[in-house]
Amino acid sequence: MHSVKQRIIQTLLKSEHKDGDRLPSVRAIMSAFNAASGTVQAALRELGDQGLICKIQGKGCFWGSAPLASTSPEIRLSTMERLDANFERDLERGFFKLNAPLPQGKELSIRYDVSQNTLRKFLTQKVELGILVKGGRSYRFRQKENAFQKDFLSELVFVTRCNSWGGFTAESERELDFLRFVYKTAGNNKYKLILLGYNDDTATLIDRSGKKCRLQDYPNAVGVIISTLLVQKFKPLLENFSSAKIPVAVWWEHPEENVPSYFLKKENWIFFNSTFGKKPGIELGRFLKSKGFSEVNYFSPYHNSSWSVDRMTGMEESGLTVHPFVDSQYASPWDFKEIARKKVEKHSVEIHARNLEKEKLASLMERAFQENLISKDIPWVCVNDEIASLFLELIEDSKSLAQHMAETVRNIMLVAFDNSAESYLLRLPSYDFNTEALVEHIFYYISNPDAFYGKKKIHHILGNVVEK
């Protein structure tokens, strides 16, 4: 039996076409095959590697080595297509509050640069599709009656990773933010959270008292929220809830193509992603292009990870020229900590790991100098705030960096991903993954599983670069 990727390839190869014809869009192929974006992209890459198709930035994929002259101009969207794309983008980035009326028509017509008549036609289409409802002169997203105005507490199962006895310690600011927003939103919407842990080593569910449990132990639960952050054995975690008849919303912290296809076929399951994939890189690229930059240097000592590669690819797809200064030996900061644990005492692990990372960054910076790519017109994009912080430490430490290099780098714009508290301390522009909007969308789905999403199974939440 062919994989989904191979079925896509074979179908495209058998379709009638001639050199220069434009292929269907990625979204159209995803819909036709019920496939993930990563699977479609992998199929197109394979055809491209074989020289059967070519990709033109901003225009799509074409049969042959180059598109025909008549197809090469940029494809223009109709007014309604452009309006729909901008509306969808605003939804993904949390501009709309899902349990509140949309902004007034005049404000939206100005925002989208369309007439109020065109806007009304567009909103009427959304009503007919069951996405919006109209009440008086205002529109809002459709939701079940009294979905957010309950006078009783509904039970909601909330699952995170845990240790062997059910204990939990947050490992990052983003994880803490996620917990805080889940607790806050649950309280505001009168949900009683049932806190469960999942232990990766035993692949079991554990309640906060350390007792093993199952979903069946909570027959009054009306929904499930699952965090996969730092969960390595995510498939057994999901399988604990495979028999659920209630809505299941998953915070997916892994590459999109790794979502088990079985759960994508279940009507009551949905996945939300904000950090993986190319969209964060695309959004950061848009930000830099709006500032007048056309090329960047990209620094990552974690390029053995899909998230590092995707962030770079996203910037390239935004139209930036990206000069990669990356190292593919390691996949995350935890790799450096594992090395440190084998070499130093426990209390020195953090310091030793940071020193190892600084050594790696100093070598990447030296490469940038050797390639004459040091200029105030070329910003440095760091894979996360920690790397930007280490760069600044290197610059201030004259023993770690040649003086002429330090002086030159001080005048270069640094940008990063994460928007951590440290980025505020350093006054560093950084991409925020919009955890608040992520949680809002999760709760909207739990309360209104059939109101908006239809058959779309993986939802991307867009963030933005926060300037300090």
Concise structural overview:
The chain is an alpha/beta fold. It contains 17 helices and 17 strands. Helices cover 40% and strands 17% of the residues.
Furnish the topology, listing elements before pairings:
Layout: H1 4-14, H2 26-33, H3 37-49, E1 53-56, E2 60-63, H4 79-92, H5 105-112, H6 116-128, E3 132-135, E4 138-141, E5 154-161, H7 173-188, E6 191-199, E7 204-207, E8 221-227, H8 234-239, E9 248-251, H9 261-264, E10 269-273, H10 279-290, E11 295-300, H11 306-317, E12 321-326, H12 333-341, H13 349-370, E13 380-382, H14 385-396, H15 403-409, E14 414-417, H16 421-425, E15 430-432, H17 435-447, E16 458-460, E17 464-466
Parallel strand pairs: 5-6, 5-8, 8-9, 9-10, 10-16, 11-12, 11-13, 13-14, 14-15
Antiparallel strand pairs: 1-2, 3-4, 6-7, 15-17
